[in-house]
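Box 3.1 A note on notation
Throughout this textbook, protein chains are presented in two layers. The first layer is the amino acid sequence; the second is a token string describing backbone geometry. Keep the layers aligned when reading.
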Amino acid sequence: MTKKYPYYISILFIVALVQELGLSHLTFYHVSPDIVTIFLAFISVTIGQKAGTSFGFFAGLLTGILSGNMGLNMLARTVEGFIAGFFNIPEDSHATTKQKSKRLYGAIVTAGFCANAVLVTGYNPLALSPAYRIFVLGFLESLITLILAFIITRLFLKKSLAG
């Protein structure tokens, strides 16, 4: 699996750029879909928790540099990769594509919600209550990201989850 790391690192750069320069500007009630969460969940579910945590750190570094909030993004993305790693499916597993997809979706929602909670503790530009930002906006962001993940899984990741 280590042969794919350079490929995944190059994809991470592209995903971070798409997120910060494109998707972060498509807001719906002050939240936007998060393609980096989908990428980190995919890495964590398919490769493992250690890889997910490492990729999360570097994803946070990249998105932090691009957004200007490096420290908090690094922490949130590292937590995101770590949490998503709990949904890991071992490579020698006999899980079906449907089971793998369910694990991926669970990782996306759980990890994205936890990362959002970390971001809320240190960054609140709208001066909203933390409970509202965590539960209402966190749920909404998780839902929007899950819809995007469903589309991406159907279009691009179906073969990766089947193998």
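The chain has a mean pLDDT of 88. Residues 109 and 146 are 7 Å apart (CA to CA).
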